[in-house]
Each structure stands twice: as structure tokens, then as C-alpha cells.
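Usage

Read records sequentially. Each one opens with the input sequence:
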Amino acid sequence: MKFILCTLLILFFFPFRALPAEVLQVSSPSVIQIGDNNRNYKIRIACINVEESNGKDAINWLKNELPRHAKVNFFPKGSEDGTLLARVTNLDSGKDLASQMIELGYAKPTC
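and closes with the structure output:
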């Protein structure tokens, strides 16, 4: 009984932190590859549509905004053809990538 009580007290006072995902690769203007400790995800940024004319600029901006091993949080919205649709937030800036791409004119909102 003492062991269980001690374990619960330790977990309560020293909770484990969830580790953020890391960017592994920017694949296209709206698709990134991320990974956590043991899984990799192909994620399409939800609620945006990037036109082909803005594609190159959008990729360059994403690579600048999300260099390899940048920390991100993602909030799943669904899936499409094996790709996870999610809102993605850069933890360094705290800003949503879709909102920033829309503000910069690289993408149009779809949601």
C-alpha cells in the first residue's frame, strides 16, 4: 500500500511531460513529415489550398519557418488518402502555420 501511495505522489508532483513532434522534412507547400519518439506522420496542413503559382515561395517559407528538428504541435482534423489532415503550430513562435500562410498570401482558406 505504501508503494502505491508513494508512486501516486511522485506522479502527481512530478508529472511526465508530453514531448512535441519534430519536423523531419517539408515535402510540398502543404505537406510535412513529422516524427515523435517512435512514429512518423505525413501531415497535410488543414484548411488551406496553396496555388501552384505560390508553391515554390510557400515551400521556401515553410523550410525557413520549420527547419529540420523544429518542434511542432499538431491537432488532427481527419485523414485523406493515408495523409493526416491537421492544424500545425510552431512551438517557437506559437503561431498556426495555416493562418500565417494565408496572411502572407501563399494560401487560400478552405475551412
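Summary fields computed downstream for this record:
- The chain has a mean pLDDT of 88.
- Residues 2-13 form the longest helix (12 residues).
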